[in-house]
Amino acid sequence: MNDREGDPLAGLDDVDWANLQHAYGPAEDVPHLLRALASESASERDKAMDELCANIFHQGSRYEATAHAVPFLAALAEGPRVQDRVDIVRLLCAIAIGYDESYLPSGVDIAEWRADIERMRTADPDEGLRRMKQWVAEAVTEGERSVREMHLAVYDLGWSLRHADAELGAYDAVRATVPALRDLLGDPAPQIQAVAAYTLGWFPEEAAGTLPALRRLLMPEVVPDVAANAIVSVGLLAGHDFAPQLRAFLTAEDALLRCAAAIALARLEVTDPEVLQVLEAAAAQPPEGSALGIHHLNGNVRGYATITLAAIEERAHPRLLGAMLKGLALSSGPAAFPTVEAVLQHVFGQPMSAPLSPYEDLTEPQQRAMRTLAEMGADTWCWGNFMLMLSAWGLPSQRAECRAYVGLD
Fold first, then answer.
1. pLDDT tens, 381-409?
2. Of the candidates 133, 119, 102, which has an alpha carbon nearest to the alpha carbon of residue 161?
3. What is the pLDDT of residues 207-234, one digit of tens each?
């Protein structure tokens, strides 16, 4: 456990925060904010958490100061007298990976992440600029060209490399706290166990030590929602040896356990009819919210089940699209976004810039998907994120335009 339990912030003032940068400049405010996380005042803790999220994790970005804050956040998370430890562990996870939808349903490919940065280190800036200009020239529409020109205007390989180094440095700083996170799996609070199990699933390089620790949570006496987070993380860590134990959960009385097991088994490439049946049921009618739920995808079980189905080969399982579209039709607002993106990738492939084909020239799966999207309500169509996703595939991004495209009033 934490060897600084008496004072989890010992050494905080030894860091030269003034010479470290975060989103708003020098990180001199970070020590005060970290101390405020241990305050007895709930309002003070909330304010500190909001400000930390804004400056060392600004809209998902990580900075020079971010990694330096990690050991102190981890020490606070271990402190039994510290309040809001769940939020602190969630912040640690966010610092490591940003937003988890970027890595689902496969998990973190850390080898490729590290290789990408090495490629950036050896890249020729002039060649990179030439490719950017070619990318702009290949734009199909004026709107797309305008967006690409904005990217070109701010292109800076040196800045991009510094940003990438800060992100990977933050990830590795949290990775160094994995032993402490494993200790939290034995915490008396189920909420702490659940968020620790969730966070541990993003560090495949530590799987050899983490998987045995997670196995202890796959027992009948464990709170179901805690076990569900552990099950999903076992899948993300490629725990193939766990497949027989995970399969036993497919018939569990708790619906979330069944869904978590199916998601994990599909990640392990076990996609027999029993697994698919559970995923299809979850995409159409996910388990109702419980006290804890799963932390993955912010608890959006329908979205997670759908992106899992979308990753399964359609030719082998032609019935999957029906379940995905049923889930899409029952979704709304931001909760629908993962499902929308999964369906678009499933029927159209990767985002494309080709001119829009007439509706009658689309394949039957593409037509079904477009009609389902067109029939979604204003509570989904009012979101810019939703319209941007459609634009990325060259599809009508206004509700009336989309409805007319598929032949609806």
1. 999 999 989 988 989 999 999 999 999 98
2. 119
3. 999 999 999 999 999 999 999 999 999 9
pTM of the model as a whole = 0.89
**Ranges of H-type helices in 201-336:** 207-215, 224-236, 243-248, 255-267, 273-284, 301-310, 320-329
Q: Which residues touch 89 (CB under 8 Å, ≥6 apart)?
A: 77, 181, 184, 192, 195, 196, 199
Q: Which amino acid is at 169?
A: G
- For the record, the structure tokens of 376 come out as 């979604």
DSSP labels for 126-169? HHHHHHHHHHHHT-SSHHHHHHHHHHHHT--HHHHHHHHHHHHH
For 245-299, how does the pLDDT look when each residue is reduced to its tens digit (9 = 90+)? 999 999 999 999 999 999 999 999 999 999 999 999 999 888 876 667 899 999 9
- Name which of 257, 79, 91, 87 is nearest 184 in CA terms: 79
